Amino acid sequence: MEVIMKKIISKNINELLEKRGWSKYRLEQVMGIDHDCIHRWCRGENSPSAESLWKLACVFEVPVDRFYKGAEKWVSTFW
User: Model pTM?
Assistant: First the structure.
């Protein structure tokens, strides 16, 4: 389940970057976070911490649960 959630969060971050027309580098600048960290999120290798998710939500002006869009179908399979 953890791997699936990382991929879902990754997909949604990339989707929001594309929607904004931002590069990963731009997101790094705005958030003040190391480029390796952002790249790992975008590749689904790592998940943002709760604090970083909050910052991402503020930066993209979306609710935190936006990063879990698409997880509903996976969660229902496990519960």
Answer: 0.88
- What is the rounded average pLDDT for all residues in the chain? 90
Find out whether 10 and 42 touch, Cβ atoms under 8 Å.
Answer: yes
**Residues 44 and 4 sit within 8 Å (Cβ to Cβ):** no
Q: How far is CA 3 from CA 13, 31, 74, in A?
A: 15, 24, 11
Report helix, strand or coil for 67. helix
Question: Considering Cα of 34, then 39, then 45, then 49, what sign does the dihedral take?
Answer: positive
20 and 60 Cβ atoms separated by less than 8 Å? yes
pLDDT tens track for 29-62: 999 999 999 999 999 999 999 999 999 999 999 9
What per-residue string of b and e applies to 34-65 under the rule 16 or more CB within 10 Å gives b?
A: eeeebebbbebebbbeeebbebbbeebeeeee
